[in-house]
Write a structure and sequence with these properties.
With about 110 residues, the protein is mainly β. The protein has strands at about 1-5, 5-10, 20-25, 30, 35-45, 50-55, 60, 60-65, 65-70, 75-80, 90-95, 100-110. The radius of gyration is 14 Å and the shape is globular.
Length: about 110
């Protein structure tokens, strides 16, 4: 499991998304959560893939279901890294149905 780091996207200019992505780890990844942070997932495969974000907490005693996002073939998806996904470490736990051709990165907007 790899610990993804945040890439700041400055207000005064953009950055290259492609240059700031890394291969998704077979055992999953962790990512910092918080306002303005997103997970970018690039799927270069010919079929769609699913990213699962664990939700470790409960609300009023009820378990919150894990979030799943399908990334279509050949597309890039942005997934908000809301604090609801923060585990005991303060990081989101991410898993993938397959990692072949998946690249990921964490970005913080407007810094």
């Amino acid at each position: 499991m790899a610990a993804l780091t945040v890439t700041a996207v400055p207000i005064a200019g953009g950055i290259s998304l492609s240059d700031n992505l890394v291969a998704a780890a077979a055992g999953g990844d962790t990512a910092p959560t918080g306002p303005g942070r997103v997970l970018a997932v690039k799927n270069a495969d010919a079929s769609s893939h699913t990213v699962t974000l664990a939700t470790p907490g409960t609300v009023n005693g009820l378990t919150v279901q894990d979030a799943t996002v399908t990334v279509p073939a050949g597309k890039v998806s942005l997934i908000p890294l809301a604090r609801v996904f923060a585990g005991a470490s303060g990081r989101a736990a991410l898993t993938y149905d397959a990692v072949t051709s998946l690249s990921v990165g964490v970005f913080e907007l407007g810094t």
